[in-house]
Amino acid sequence: MLSIRRIHSIVQKELKQLSRDRMTFGMVVMIPLVQLLLFGYAINTDVRHIPVGIVDLSGSAVARVITQAVTATQVVEIKHHYTTPKEAEQAIVRGEIRAALIYPADLSKRLVGENVLAQWVVDASDTMVSSAILQLRQMPLDQIIVDPKLHRVTHKPNFEVALFFNPTRRSAVNIVPGLSAVILTMTMILFTSTAIVRERERGNLELLITTPIKPLELMIGKIVPYIFIGLLQVSIILLLGNLVFDVPINGSLFHVYAATLLFIAASLTLGLIISTIAKTQLQAMQMTVFVLLPSILLSGFMFPYEAMPKLAQNIAEMLPATHYMRMIRAVVLRGAEVQVLVYDSLWLIGFSILGIVLAAFRFSKRLD
Q1: Which is nearest to 293 in space by CA: 319, 314, 329, 323?
Q2: Residue 113: phi, psi to the nearest 5?
Q3: CB neighbours of 120 closer than 8 A, spacing ≥ 6?
Q4: pLDDT tens, 285-314?
Q5: Which residues pair with 164 in a beta bridge?
Q6: How far apart, in whole angstroms, are the C-alpha atoms of residue 1 and residue 209?
Q7: 224-268 confidence digits (pLDDT tens)
Q8: Model pTM?
Q9: What is the 3-state secondary structure (H, E, C) of the chain?
Q10: Among 66, 147, 199, 350, which lies 20 to 30 A Cα-Cα from 134?
Q11: pLDDT tens-place string over residues 31-56
Q12: Which of 85-94, 116-125, 137-146 is least confident?
């Protein structure tokens, strides 16, 4: 028969053990708290403040009035003005803007009848962003442009929309490159976060202590094998994505792997830092999940970066996955070069250097 007293004793033992394991207890509280805050506050499917550029070939007051009306919707936010459509398209490739509104030279003449007034050029690699811009096509302008000489009554869209990089708006085109960031975040951090802990649990740390190896040498030696694993994973993702889902690779493979190397280095050093903090492999895995959740939700993988509030964007900027997400999508989908994405490249390099130095500093060649 079951003994309530014995079960009660085991329950007491588990509760005491849990209370002594501060890391696990902290994760029990923090993981649901972080998820609640991320989903309830940071995640917003209503895309707002999309960074766009303006190309005004007409130089007319009408263009300024239309621009003010478009801005008033809060769907877009004017970031730059360009002199030619070519400059705007290059800015989209670089990631400076997500779309450009181009006014033709004969804008005033187009007001009469059912002519399209202007054209949106959109980075359609993100389907949520392109959907938000497409909603502006039927934006009513008859009450904004008031001129007794004009009679503009049309059932046609006021704006033409040209979708770049993903004209059919297939979600796989956006997801597959981003998936490489998610998978690398999970595997690279998990592999290295258990590295030092595993040595301690297996009793190999005593052997390392007796060797002349330096902490920095140990940290570098721990991450090098996983670099090749990460490159293999990205190759599998992009290859299958191209063959199965017809996701194009518009950029150079050299730039793809250069961006991936920077991100792998940053993820591995983050894992090493976790490895020097965690006491057990279970704790290391729990801390990895704690990093993985924000990386998935805030990096732009599931929801557009522009749709998040400023505080969430600031948190996202501290995550390596956010910078790699921008880089891999820019290279694979828009054909951008890594040197164009200077900010994200330098950030990942700086994070890797600081991380490996911090991990080496925290590692002590002695048993606690």
Answers
A1: 319
A2: 90, -150
A3: 99, 100, 101, 102, 133, 136, 137, 159, 160, 161, 162
A4: 888 888 888 898 889 898 888 878 888 899
A5: 123
A6: 51
A7: 888 999 999 999 999 999 999 999 999 999 999 999 999 999 999
A8: 0.83
A9: CCCHHHHHHHHHHHHHHHHHCHHHHHHHHHHHHHHHHHHHHHCCCCCCCEEEEEEECCCCHHHHHHHHHHHHCCCEEEEEEECCHHHHHHHHHHCCCCEEEEECCCHHHHCCCCCCCEEEEEECCCHHHHHHHHCCCCCCCCCCCCCCCCCCCCCCCCEEEEEECCCCCCHHHHHHHHHHHHHHHHHHHHHHHCHHHHHHHCCCHHHHHHCCCCHHHHHHHHHHHHHHHHHHHHHHHHHHHHHHCCCCCCCCHHHHHHHHHHHHHHHHHHHHHHHHHCCCHHHHHHHHHHHHHHHHHHCCCCCCHHHCCHHHHHHHCCCHHHHHHHHHHHHHHHCCCHHHCHHHHHHHHHHHHHHHHHHHHHCCCCCC
A10: 147
A11: 677 667 766 666 667 788 899 999 99
A12: 137-146
50-164: CATH number: 3.40.1710
**What is the rounded distance in angstroms from the CA atom of residue 101 to the CA atom of residue 54?**
5
pLDDT-derived band at 143 (thresholds 50, 70, 90) equals low
* Phi, psi (degrees; rounded to nearest 5) at 120: -95, 130
Tracing tokens 């500093």 back to the chain, one arrives at 361
Place of tokens 């956010």: 322
Sign of CA dihedral 227, 231, 232, 236: positive
Domain with CATH 3.40.1710 in the chain: 50-164
Residue with tokens 């995640």: 43
Task: Answer positive or negative: Cα dihedral of 299, 302, 306, 309.
Answer: negative
Pairing of strands 99-103, 159-164: unpaired
Cβ atoms within 10 Å of 99's Cβ, excluding its own: 25
d(CA 102, CA 63): 10
Range in 73-87, 128-142, 197-211 the model is least confident about? 197-211
